[in-house]
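Q: What would this chain look like folded?
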Amino acid sequence: MTTAVSNEVAVSTWNIDPAHSTAQFKVKHMMISNVKGEFTHIKGTLKLESSDITRSSVEASMDVSTINTREEQRDAHLKSADFFHLEKFPTISFKSTRVTKKGDDDFAVEGELTMHGVTRKVVFDVESLSPPTKDPWGNTRIGLSASTKINRKDFGLNWNAALETGGILVGEEVAITLDVEFIKA
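A: My prediction, written as structure tokens:
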């Protein structure tokens, strides 16, 4: 008697919990200090292949209208055509193309980041995925933190102003940190 061996791969689907996820950024202001902000409405899906995480994938998007730097005038300027041009480009999106293991629990997630109508390759460094945990409502959750740096000019975010003392008002390098919680579908 022959026994069939299953070659099925365990892939699970996880949805981003926008209430417990943020995308934060920081950029130099006047070449002396950092301005920090965040996008508070992130949505997306992780397809997690538990037997080989490098075969997993993620897609996510952020609502540009949720930008918050704790300063209304600055937020309005960032939503204008000088920067994100909210009316024309209301979302920022990311779609992974490759996951690479960097260590026992760390990964690099490469993908296409689309912002301000421009798509560029970006690599996020991902800290270990947390173990699945049940919440008080019976859902299973996991979380992760990821980070990268981009040059905002690569995405057409070119606005700037020269300073009287030399230098520029807004730095070009932007550090991005994601803290994302997922709920098993």
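The chain has one domain: 11-184.
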